[in-house]
Amino acid sequence: MKTNSKGTGMNRSWMLCMAWLVVTSSMAVAQSVDLWVLDGDTDSVLGLDASGAIVSTVALPGDGAGTAVTHDGAAWISIPAEQLIVKVDVDGIAVSVSPPEPVLALAVAADGSFWGVSNVSSEAFHFDDSGVWLETATVGSVPFALAIDGVGRVWVTNAFGNSVTRIDIDGSTAEFPVGFYPTGIAAHPGGNVWVIEKTGITILAGDGSVVSTQAVGSFPRGVTVALDGDVWVSDQGAHSVLQFDSAGQLLDEHTVGYVPWGISASGDGSVSVLCGYSGEVFRLDDDGAVLAVTAVGYPNAIGDLSGLQLAMTVLPEEDFDGDSAANMIESVNGTDPLDAGSQPVSFVRGDASRDGVVDIVDVFVILGHGDAPVCQEALDVDDSGMIDLADAANLLSYLFMGGASPAAPFPAASYDSSPASGYPCEG
Ligand SMILES: [Ca+2]
Ligand SMILES: [Ca+2]
Ligand SMILES: [Ca+2]
Ligand SMILES: [Ca+2]
């Protein structure tokens, strides 16, 4: 049985009271739900904002299991005991559908349709964006979780089959062996697929071949890709999260609450960890420092709780928040693809002085004889990843000798599609 050592009943009732006040006060809360967290104690789903405050509470007809946030911030939630899937937004349950079998984990595809896996029938079901059942694929034994990659393929972990099934666009399937008892799975924007197993991790390439495998953790379970491309894994036996770089190198381990299962990254660069047995949702920054701890009776859910995996991996070219910067451009620039108030700085390469004109003054700034630059990326005229004499020489050549123009973005201001680390553009 679960225990609840941290969240007292007093604390929880206070949080719920606050949530009620906020929900009934305005429609503006629709924009502020950052993370959908299932609460197994109350059979409800809670909307948390980026500060960890509960800003929405929606009662469910049973205990939710899988969650998948859509591009508009709503969430599909599976309720296997009731053989239901519901779509929830801050106003409540918008859609309720009955799948052919009880469904566990869910994932949203590029066209708005979604997939769910059934550990009862070992099948994956495909539904359209309104929940109409479209097709069924047979997967391996007792599927646990799924992820959709950048070219629309569905990857399913088969917990009892010790394998991963890939469902291709044409509906054909391929099964690849992995380690013992695979659970969590994430498709990285870079193309690899991360599989979490009872005693470690296997990274697969898109063709199903093994890129690497390593023994790590103490029964790790959930996985998410952070805004910066690091991969975070909940380690339920160690009550911690493991932070890896995209190549699979273990960078750090951060202690969280008791028995972390669910884990999901947000657009602000943070990662939230759902610690079921201690009744806590930890929100960590990209270095693992604790930003907030939210008391929730029994927080759970596997899947994409924020929509960030959908934004970064499935639909990187889309602009979810409508701020004119594509999701992928925002993630490489470190701005929030789910928040229109956070967007990359647009600049013209070569305009080192940031006055809107590319001229000799900019050459002096590059040479260090002008005001300190606020957008160092603009000084890297040839986009070589280094600021050096060649940039000044290239700009002089362009201005006075008919030489090549600066690299993009030029001449129109825009965002950098491949910013060099260490060269911030802040204004
Ligand atoms: Ca955007
Ligand atoms: Ca944004
Ligand atoms: Ca200038
Ligand atoms: Ca350069």
TL;DR?
By secondary structure, this protein is mainly beta.
Which properties best describe this structure?
binds calcium ion, four-stranded antiparallel β-sheet, mainly beta, 11% helix, five-stranded mixed β-sheet, Type 1 dockerin domain, single chain, Methylamine Dehydrogenase, Chain H, disordered N terminus
Write the topology of this structure.
Layout: H1 9-23, E1 35-39, E2 44-48, E3 54-59, E4 66-69, E5 75-79, E6 84-89, E7 92-97, E8 106-108, E9 114-118, E10 123-127, E11 133-138, E12 143-148, E13 154-158, E14 163-167, E15 173-177, E16 185-187, E17 193-197, E18 200-204, E19 210-215, E20 220-225, E21 231-235, E22 240-244, E23 250-255, E24 260-265, E25 271-275, E26 280-284, E27 290-295, E28 299-300, E29 302-304, H2 308-314, H3 327-333, H4 360-366, H5 389-401
Helix pairs in contact: 4-5
Written account of the structure:
The protein has 427 residues and is mostly beta strands. The chain has 2 domains: 306 residues, Methylamine Dehydrogenase, Chain H (7 Propeller), CATH 2.130.10; 83 residues, Orthogonal Bundle (Type 1 dockerin domain). Strand 5 and strand 6 form a beta hairpin. Helix 4 packs antiparallel against helix 5. It is elongated and about 70 Å long. One calcium ion binds next to loops.
Helix tally? 5
Structural category? mainly beta
The CATH C-level class name of the largest domain: Mainly Beta
Shape: elongated
CATH topology type of the largest domain: Methylamine Dehydrogenase, Chain H
- What would you report as the Rg, rounded to the nearest angstrom? 23 Å
Unique bound compounds: calcium ion
The CATH level-2 architecture of the largest domain is identified as: 7 Propeller
Query: What is the strand content?
Result: 25-35%
Mean pLDDT across all amino acids:
91
**What's the name of the CATH homologous superfamily of the largest domain?**
YVTN repeat-like/Quinoprotein amine dehydrogenase
What is the β-strand count? 29
What number of structural domains do the residues give?
2
Strand order of the largest sheet: 7-6-5-4-29
Helicity range = 10-25%
Distance between the terminal alpha carbons, to the nearest Å?
53 Å
Low-confidence stretches: 1-30
The largest sheet, given as strand count, sense and whether it forms a barrel, is: 5 strands, mixed
